[in-house]
Design brief:
single chain, 286 residues, alpha+beta, Arc Repressor Mutant, subunit A, 3 domains, 11 helices, 14 strands, 19% strand
């Protein structure tokens, strides 16, 4: 499983010497003290007091000396001194995601949260981020970032995930991760992947919290899919199932929106089972 806890890209160029002028030294010392290995030009201005153009010139010179790596316009990584002559370094994509979100509330979610919670058996190659600010999809440092816009009311079920002993990012908790997967199966790999995560963490997940989150989101597709899966895997009692069942309407939806509209209709949960119970049972063996 691919878990990013360090740098991805290190390149060595012998033609540059990592010398530090007083301004660059001040910048790097302050960034290290602030635990901001990924930083912006705005950070440079705040630390050094330089104008925007002077800050840009300082970072450009630091880049030429192999002290920082440019990820995108205005966003950079420090190159750790312990890498020796390496002059390029890309830090954890999760820290990059935090910087891309800016000052807006955010959390790693969907397929990325599934992976960090060890709820999948296949690697995920897109970094998914839920954010209250609209951010376009982009590739930075060789990583693909996909942002899902949320409202302030949808900002719940969030915990810290520590990258190392000093740096952390925000991530959806396990229950919120399942709910997001049920709402947007495409960002996880399909309903079978959500079911797999649900089964893998069946002894850890708090069913009451899952049900509460589904009720709070208030999306019919989430309520139907959660109720059906909890009942199929016998993970919830009659009271929890009833609290979900009481919320569904007469409309039918597909169990997996990524698959064709085929399969039997299950009236109890108003679902078209385009993933068969037998297919769902295979996750018990994973």
């Amino acid at each position: 499983m691919r878990l990013f806890t360090g740098g991805k890209l290190n390149k060595i160029h012998n033609s540059q010497t990592k010398t530090l002028g007083p301004r660059a030294a001040q910048l790097i010392v302050e960034l290290n003290e602030l635990r901001r290995s990924t930083f912006t030009l705005a950070d440079v201005g705040l630390i050094t007091g330089l104008s925007a153009s002077a800050a840009r010139n300082l970072v450009h010179k630091a880049q030429q000396r192999g002290l920082v790596t440019r990820l995108k316009p205005g966003l950079y990584n420090l190159v750790p001194f312990e890498l020796g002559r390496a002059t390029e370094h890309v830090d954890s994509p999760y820290l990059i995601a935090r910087e891309l979100a800016g000052a807006a509330p955010y959390f790693l979610s969907h397929g990325t949260a599934f992976e960090l919670h060890r709820m999948v058996t296949q690697p995920n190659f897109t970094i998914y981020v839920s954010c209250t600010r609209r951010v376009r999809p982009q590739t930075v440092g060789g990583y693909d970032f996909r942002f899902i816009h949320i409202t302030d009311k949808q900002e719940f079920g969030i915990i810290k995930h520590w990258i190392d002993k000093q740096r952390f990012v925000m991530i959806s908790d396990m229950e919120r991760t399942i709910i997001d997967g049920l709402r947007h199966p495409a960002y996880v790999g399909g309903i079978s992947e959500v079911a797999k995560g649900l089964w893998m963490k069946r002894d850890t997940l708090k069913i009451e919290r899952l049900v509460s989150y589904a009720q709070r989101v208030g999306v019919g597709a989430v309520i139907r899919r959660l109720g059906y899966l909890l009942e199929h895997y016998e993970l919830a009692d009659a009271s929890a199932l009833k609290s979900l069942h009481d919320l569904i309407t007469a409309t039918y939806i597909r169990l997996d929106p990524l698959l064709p509209a085929e399969g039997v209709y299950l009236s109890r949960w108003r679902l078209q089972l385009n993933v068969t119970p037998e297919e769902l049972d295979t996750v018990r063996l994973s």
